[in-house]
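User: Can you recover a sequence for this backbone? Please restate the input before giving your answer.

Assistant: Of course. Working from this structure:
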């Protein structure tokens, strides 16, 4: 760690796992560069302060009820959070800026800036009123973030798209999404989508800069110049930092550490790891199809089934006893796994994933080819990047069927097709690794970000 530079940065993550991990990786990077860190967070999905003893944590009221947090509509949940957190956030930040050290009475360290998740839209007016520079941390790829503002317009046309016979055609306004992906992406009722996206766009354009923690020139080469032209604020594509700053300490779930000893007993590149992230859900019949496909492949597998993720059941009760006995012969089912440790294990041969960007980037960083089964939102685009653009995985084309899953596993692990995928993945992994090394594109972008923050 660099010597403390006398400056403090305030971070404000959106309270979902896929946004908390990148924010804490950002915090660890800044702390390693000499900045002190204060994290303002909601009571809902509060991070574990004990896992980060070098950071200061301040909790604010979020006003969410039990009914609110059970909603399946994330756009509505984020809209509620923005409505109900503004007053408590303003009070907290105002007090922080004006506070003195309780022991010495001296002024605390200079606060350089606020870094908040792009999903917080009220922060612009608060920071401006307090004359505090503000950076937006973005957990999407540059390509998705640029294109997703077209979703309200595309949503109005989705009925026409669903009747289109050319469902495999690429959506011109949103490549490399295909029309059938867009229909699925927009099928959920999201009446708050357009106003929420408009607020995100306005908040981002009025910021002092955008940090893309999941992107680097090697992954977003075509989109970065266009984004700089469109947003007209400094953009920092600092790339994945997973190898240097693991996300496990910021997990909201208890990780089953028995995964690693189990993997130690398996052969190299033989295990299929299966996880659908912190938000996705499935039906009982879908879980059975996945379990059967894994079992029928004949390969050992590690299956993560989050508590409450199977509709109508608490955990894996939907799997019949006879099938469970067969599953246990080759597989292991856990409620949550230390994903980065799992993916870097020598036994992992493939990753059946929902294609959340954290998972995609972690898989690339460890050189693990993927089988794509996206569930919602940005995952549809990342699945196409994996299967159609980078060509480092196979796409199930939204078919949760045992025969399709078994076939995809065999294609990925055996034969010339799987070998070609692994070769391309190795090349992509190497490119991304070079980007974060000294003089790489992400390394240079991070150095520019540190200079930018230090200039405030």
């Amino acid at each position: 760690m660099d010597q403390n530079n006398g400056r403090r940065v305030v971070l404000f993550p959106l309270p979902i796992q896929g946004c908390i991990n990148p924010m804490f990786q950002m915090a660890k990077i800044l702390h390693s560069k000499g900045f002190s860190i204060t994290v303002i967070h909601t009571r809902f999905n509060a991070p574990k302060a004990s896992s980060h003893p070098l950071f200061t944590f301040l909790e604010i009221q979020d006003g969410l009820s039990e009914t609110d947090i059970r909603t399946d509509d994330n756009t509505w949940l984020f809209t509620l959070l923005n409505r109900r957190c503004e007053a408590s956030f303003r009070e907290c930040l105002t007090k922080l800026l004006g506070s003195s050290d309780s022991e010495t009475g001296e002024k605390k360290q200079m606060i350089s800036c606020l870094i908040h998740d792009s999903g917080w839209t009220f922060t612009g007016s608060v920071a401006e009123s307090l004359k505090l520079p503000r950076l937006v941390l973005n957990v999407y790829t540059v390509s998705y973030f640029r294109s997703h503002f077209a979703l309200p317009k595309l949503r109005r046309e989705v009925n026409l798209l669903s009747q289109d016979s050319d469902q495999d055609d690429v959506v011109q306004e949103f490549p490399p999404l295909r029309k059938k992906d867009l229909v699925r992406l927009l099928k959920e009722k999201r009446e708050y989508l357009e106003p929420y996206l408009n607020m995100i766009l306005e908040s981002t354009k009025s910021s002092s800069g955008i940090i893309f923690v999941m992107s680097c020139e090697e992954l977003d080469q075509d989109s970065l110049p266009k984004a700089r032209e469109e947003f007209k604020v400094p953009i920092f594509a600092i790339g994945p930092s997973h190898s240097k700053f693991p996300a496990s300490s910021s997990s909201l779930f208890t990780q089953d550490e028995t995964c690693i000893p189990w993997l130690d007993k398996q052969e190299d590149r033989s295990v299929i790891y299966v996880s659908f992230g912190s938000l996705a859900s499935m039906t009982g019949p879908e879980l059975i199809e996945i379990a059967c496909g894994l079992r029928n492949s004949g390969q050992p597998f590690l299956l993560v089934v989050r508590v409450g993720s199977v509709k109508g059941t608490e955990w894996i009760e939907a799997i019949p006893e006879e099938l469970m006995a067969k599953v246990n012969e080759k597989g292991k089912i856990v409620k949550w796994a230390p994903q980065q440790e799992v993916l870097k294990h020598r036994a992992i041969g493939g990753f059946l994933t929902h294609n959340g960007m954290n998972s995609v980037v972690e898989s690339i960083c460890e050189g693990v080819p993927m089988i794509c089964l996206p569930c919602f939102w940005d995952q549809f685009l990342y699945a196409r990047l994996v299967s159609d653009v980078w060509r480092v995985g196979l796409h199930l084309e939204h078919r949760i069927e045992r025969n399709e899953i078994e076939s995809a596993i065999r294609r990925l692990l055996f034969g010339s097709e799987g070998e070609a995928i692994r070769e391309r993945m190795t090349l992509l992994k190497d490119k991304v690794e070079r980007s974060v090394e000294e003089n790489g594109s992400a390394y240079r972008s991070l150095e520019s970000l540190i200079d930018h923050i230090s200039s405030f």
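That completes the design. The longest helix spans residues 74-98.
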